[in-house]
Design goal:
heterodimer; A: alpha+beta; Immunoglobulin-like; 5 domains; 5-stranded antiparallel sheet; 30 strands; B: SH3 type barrels; two-stranded antiparallel sheet; 55% helix
Chain lengths: 608, 214
Amino acid sequence: MRLNHIRSILLASLGLLGVFIAAIAFADDPLVYATIQPAQIQLGESAQFTITNLGDGTNPINIPVVSGLKFEIIGRTREVQLINGSTLPSSSIVFRVTPQMAGIFTIPAVTPKAQPLVLQVNGAASGANIPHPSRPAAPIPPPIFSGGSIPKGVHLTDDGSAYVRLSVPKRELYVGESVPVDIEVGMRSGFVASLNGLPKLTNDDFALNSLSRQPERTEKLINGEPFVLLTWRSTLAVIKPGAFSLAAEVPLTVKIRTRPKQESSLDDRFGDPFWQNIFGATVPKDVNVTSPAQELTVHELPAEGRPADFHGAIGTFSIASDVSPVKAEVGDPLTLRMRVTGTGSFDRVDSSMLDHLDQWKTYPPKSSFNTSDPLSFSGMKTFEQPVIASKAGVQELPGLTFSYFDPNTRRYETARSAPLTVSISPALADTRTAPQAPSASLPESEFAAGLRPDHVETTTVSSLIPLYLQPKFLAVPSIVVLAFAAGWVSARRRRGVGDRESATDRIASRAAKRALAQMQGAARAGDAALFFESARTALQSELAARWQLAPEEITTAEVEGRIGAENDIRQVFALADEAKYSGRKLNATDFARWLRIVRGHLMSDKTS
Amino acid sequence: MRAALVVCLLLGSVGARSESEPVGYSAAGLYNLGNSYARAGKPGMAILNYERASLLSPNDPDVQANLRYVRASAHLPAEVPDTFDRVAGIAAPFWLSWIGVLGLMIVGASVIAAQLSLRHRLVRGAATLLGVSMLGLMFCNALALWPRLHQGVVIAAATPVRVSPVPMGDPLFTLPEGEKVKITAEHEGFALIETRAGRAGWIANSNFAPIVPR
């Protein structure tokens, strides 16, 4: 009886254990599940995330928290589903998921046994993440590295939600030097709501150049907790010398626990923030997470040994040059290329090394930069400069030099390229020799068939400019014009003298005729005084013109002095005086004789 | 008499200098050079030398025939001279230069003779007209040749015409080899040219040659 009682108790206990196990098994059935559509989107698009609760819908559902994803409730549905002939009510909450950055995001599972969902967000402008059509649509979850720990020297925030790490490769820098740096932000999954800005430095004496817009995103287990790691790469530019303390800070919104720690220890044991959020255990708070400070020493560039052609480039470089084509004609443009390869501040690598190409006509070079990293810290800068040879012959382009400061050796270095040789032939248009005839194996050109035959060479001229436009020839017509102008002036002057003489003769002739007519009138009237007075006046005018004197200066004494006392003119002068005072009378014969004598003097002078 | 003696001496010196020039141009030489380039398949240089030969010998039928033939073979449009050009090119510029000088002398002599004597007025008038005509012929020749003195021939195939006088200048269009262009300006190895269609741009000096070498 006692044994049966014990057996009954054991059976009852086994039954209760079976019911308990069945209850547990029933409890683990997936009453809540989630879906996301589509699983792959572009940055700037949104996906639809749906959490469905099969049951009475009394379980509260909160918004999931994933760094880089923004969840918004856009609708709730309630319906009754028919499963295996029995009705089952269900409720769903529909979220719009908007990514804030490109990457692969893991949305925590809504139940411990369910699988987490993965959303792949491709960069809007990059085609690198666009899946191949042959690949399956489902994205590949990012690798999760297990066994990690907090990097050395880095500490989590007080609530353990995030950390920031600034990696600088060296502690001693030079002014003007650029060094690549990494800024890593670790965000514990479910504890960081959003990233509110890009990382920045806490010291204004440094600058971040070429900070990547999209950080690299990975997931990692650190101390057994899942962390999302965002890594920005940039170059640190040093502005002034001195000793500095440098750190980086990142603005975040984290979830702060609102319940005492001991009450949330159960949540921590579950380890799933989804269940913490379901029960509303956190509130968002904006914080700036700062990295541990690093001590840096910045030196001035040494003045000693600074080359004259140093223009501020710091790093490690090498140069090479080439020219193409290596054979050209005078006036043809050649392209001189100079390539600077290495790591460092390529923005200070300029084309001043091309300024020493004497005897070459140069044009401003153009440059291009092919970088091998997104920070433009290493790569190859190419300068292409057109140059034109001004004279024929074998010409040499001198070797190029480029000076820089090498922070590794801590001194100035000069890279050199070898000189280049090109062969320049005379310009085709300047040659007066016939071109080389086509070789026998090649046919003559299509132009040869219809050409007329060559001519026999004749005399040559020194210039193709027409002779009448050549300065030396223009002297000929100029001299001809001057000579004829001189001849014309001379002829005109000679003709002018003759004209003046004949005019004088005409005037004198008219005066003589008037005097003779007056004498004839006096003879007819028998007036001897008037007759001789007219004769004397006419002779005075005639002699005055001949002797270049005034008519009144032609007196009897003047006539005697010049032509003697025994002549007809002297007698006319004397008879004029006598007839004037004596009243002498002449007969017709005397009048005729003296008239003939005076006419003879007057008219003979006109013809002589 | 003295002036005539000076003129004769000057004419003699100019002629002697032309004869004694060791290196020069001749119509036959340029024509033969054009033939050589044509046979070598370089129509640009061939046309250039034919154009130069026609400057010295404008009425040489072989030069004109080969020039037309090469232009046609290079698919360039034919050039038909107008009446003015034909009349103005009745003789070579060399001879027209001396004809002009002779005309100048005839006109001058007539003017002086008119000053010296009033007789033979009809003869003097005819001589003056003859001299003026000879001078006018020279001026017409200069007027007809003036555009060609500022033209060039493209000697490279598919020569790019650029917006600016630098090798990196953006190309506007290309010119075929043998095309004649008007040169309006020059700047550091480039020439601003204008085509017959009125399009303008810069081409490298190495791609063309002026008809009259500078």
